[in-house]
């Protein structure tokens, strides 16, 4: 079972790649979705967040007030570290459970972990392949403003809060250039799928144990 980490900065086109791989038959495990689930009302993670940051981060119906929490931690490295110490272990455990379930259902399946914070939290995990969705920060800024309707200052702040592109490029085995057309991105993803599914573990040559061609 190839275990692929798919990462990329905000507005990099990562979701497009994940969607295409799902069409081909990959099992997609979405880190952001897991985060939301482990922070659901009544969960131990949510209780720990409230204990660390105050009951004001909980709405009247018992859910996490994500906007309030974000306002408390954004730009505060210590606060981010405290939050990550609560959330990341739960996400790691749940993602591992889903990887194992996918393997149990079909030992030959390709599992793709869609994970924005790979460099920050999971870079040393034993991935068979690290795939990066990559577009220049200037283009991602344009996408955030023109396609998502974000204020330019907010978009710049979101991009600046993430690790630099250079750090993602350093750990990537395969880079999917998403700066061009949608068709070009999909074609690269199709090629990635062909190489991954045509390669056996015994042919591994990459840093992360894969026979797929490195970037």
From TrEMBL:
Named from the GO MF annotations, one term is: dephospho-CoA kinase activity
The record's section on InterPro entries has: Depp_CoAkinase, P-loop_NTPase
Residues engaged in binding ATP: 11-16
- The kind of enzyme this is, by top-level EC class, is transferase
- Keyword Amino-acid biosynthesis listed: no
Query: Per its UniProt record, what PROSITE patterns does this chain match?
Result: DPCK
What reaction(s) does this enzyme catalyze?
3'-dephospho-CoA + ATP = ADP + CoA + H(+)
State which pathway it belongs to: Cofactor biosynthesis; coenzyme A biosynthesis; CoA from (R)-pantothenate: step 5/5
Q: What is its EC number?
A: 2.7.1.24
* Localization in the cell: Cytoplasm
| SUPFAM superfamilies in alphabetical order | P-loop containing nucleoside triphosphate hydrolases (SSF52540)
Mind listing the UniProt keywords for this protein, alphabetically? ATP-binding, Coenzyme A biosynthesis, Cytoplasm, Kinase, Nucleotide-binding, Transferase
Q: Please name one Pfam family that this protein belongs to.
A: CoaE
Signal peptide positions (record): none
The family this protein is said to belong to: Belongs to the CoaE family.
Cited function: Catalyzes the phosphorylation of the 3'-hydroxyl group of dephosphocoenzyme A to form coenzyme A.
Q: What is this protein called?
A: Dephospho-CoA kinase
The species this protein belongs to is Microbacterium pullorum
Gene label:
coaE
């Amino acid at each position: 079972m190839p275990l692929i980490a798919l990462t990329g900065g905000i507005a990099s086109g990562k979701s497009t790649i994940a969607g295409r791989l799902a069409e081909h038959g990959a099992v997609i495990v979405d880190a952001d979705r897991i985060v939301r689930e482990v922070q659901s009302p009544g969960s131990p993670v949510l209780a720990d967040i409230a204990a660390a940051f105050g009951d004001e981060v909980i709405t009247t119906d018992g859910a996490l007030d994500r906007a309030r929490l974000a306002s408390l931690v954004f730009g505060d490295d210590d606060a981010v570290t405290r939050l990550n110490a609560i959330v990341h272990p739960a996400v790691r455990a749940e993602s591992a459970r889903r990887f194992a379930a996918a393997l149990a259902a079909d030992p030959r399946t390709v599992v793709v972990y869609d994970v924005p914070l790979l460099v920050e939290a999971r870079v040393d995990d034993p991935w068979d392949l690290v795939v990066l969705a990559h577009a220049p920060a200037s283009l991602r800024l344009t996408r955030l403003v023109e396609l998502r309707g974000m204020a330019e200052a907010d978009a710049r702040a979101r991009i600046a809060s993430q690790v630099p592109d250079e750090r993602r490029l350093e750990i990537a085995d395969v880079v999917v250039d998403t700066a061009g057309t949608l068709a070009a991105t999909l074609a690269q993803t199709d090629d990635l799928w062909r190489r991954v599914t045509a390669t056996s573990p015994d042919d591994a040559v990459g840093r992360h144990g894969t026979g797929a061609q490195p970037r």
